[in-house]
Structure formats: structure tokens, C-alpha cells
Amino acid sequence: MSPIWCAFAVAERGWLLSAPQDGESPSVKVPDPPPDAPPGLDQKMETLLAWGKWGVLICGVAGLFICAGQMAIGRKNRSTFAADGATGIPWVLGGLSLAATAAPIVGVFFR
């Protein structure tokens, strides 16, 4: 018996699984509570995030200083060193921009 013939036989006898006929499918309610900090931990987490933001700010300033130093040192006879410093600037600015917009970006997903 060919596979096509078997498929016709199954369809003809109604052996295929079908959806409920009344038009409504059973649904499951999945809980979706808003984010809530554990008691006493919210202030500590805000402090930790503030320290992280401060650390990123310091790293960003240091990164720009390093890029400027590479460009100044590589000005004469070391053009690739200066080019490495210049190509590092967008990466530093990108990291600082991401750190500055991290909270609003995450907030979009938890509305």
C-alpha cells in the first residue's frame, strides 16, 4: 500500500486528530506579576547599581584617555598605533552609551 493511499484512508475514516468543534480551545492562565524587590534588598541593589554606573564612568574616562594617548604617541612614525587609538573611540563611546541607556532599554521589556 502506498503512503498516499494510506493518507487518504486515514483522512476518510477520520483518524486524524482534530481541534475541539465548539470553537474554543482550552486555555491556561499564566501568572505575570510585576517585578518586586525582596523586602530590605531594594536599597542595597540600588547602591550596587550606582557603584556599577560609577565604575563604568571611570572606565569610560580611562578608555578615552588611553585612546588619546595612543593617538598622541602614534602621531610620528607609528601610524598604526594612532589608528588603533582612533578606532577605540567609537567602542568606548558605544559602551558609555549602552551604560547610560541600560535602565530604559530594560524597562521597555517590563512594561
Please specify the SSE layout and strand pairing.
Layout: H1 3-13, H2 42-73, H3 79-100, H4 102-109
User: Based on DSSP secondary structure assignment, what is the total number of beta strands?
Assistant: 0
SSE series? HHHH
Shape: elongated
Largest sheet: none
- Bin the strand percentage: under 5%
Give the tags:
111 residues; mainly alpha; elongated
Overview of this protein structure:
- The chain is mostly helical and 111 residues long.
- Helix content is 66%, strand content 0%.
- It is built from 4 helices and no strands.
Short description:
The chain has 4 helices and no strands. The protein has 111 residues and is mainly α.
